[in-house]
Amino acid sequence: MLDELKQQVYDANMALQRAGLVLLTWGNVSGRDPDSGLVAIKPSGVEYAEMTPAQMVVVDIEGEVIEGELRPSSDTPTHLELYRSFPAIGGVAHSHSTAATAWAQAGRSLPCYGTTHADQFRGPVPVTAEMSPEAVGGDYELETGKAIVRVFESLDPAEITAVLVAGHGPFTWGATPQAATENSIVLEHVALIGLLTEALNPSVTNITAFLRDRHFLRKHGDEAYYGQSDS
Length: 231
Known about the structure:
CATH topology: L-fuculose-1-phosphate Aldolase
Strand content: 5-15%
Number of strands: 7
Strand order of the largest sheet: 4-3-2-1-5-7-6
Distance between the termini: 28 Å
CATH superfamily: Class II aldolase/adducin N-terminal domain
Shape: globular
């Protein structure tokens, strides 16, 4: 089971890199095994061209290394805090992709300007509060996770599967590592569209709630009809 999990996490990391969302080694994807609760994550600072599935590091929910000879990603405590707080998720992705990071550095949430956005996220993608000097100087990566979780005290992480960490960059999640990566790809795309939209029309506003919900629910709701049915 761990070999399968490590392969899934490796594949999701490579997909993030192939999508152009990763520069050098600046990105990581993790996955959680639903039975054991163990998490596999990319090793810290390893070049993508040299990385193998066997190098994925397996940790428990408290961050103790269970399997692997390399150090796990430095962002591991952030991932683990998301798994502890969002029990339904099975994958987390983090990058420093250009457009999404620009919104994070501006300290702005990403508005839902159109249906492309609404197809994946049911409303604006939020930005965290700026972290205090104490949080940055302490257990920084854990505090980053806590800053994300605080944003979702009033939001549903199943409906908005992404966040912008102020001054830092995007995190996304999903049911699987691949789903988390796909959400990162979509987030980068709609972040770029948002920048272009504001450039063309600085007075633009969010699309209506009923149009937003129609697009989101036709893909993700209980009565979703997008795509092919299992039958």
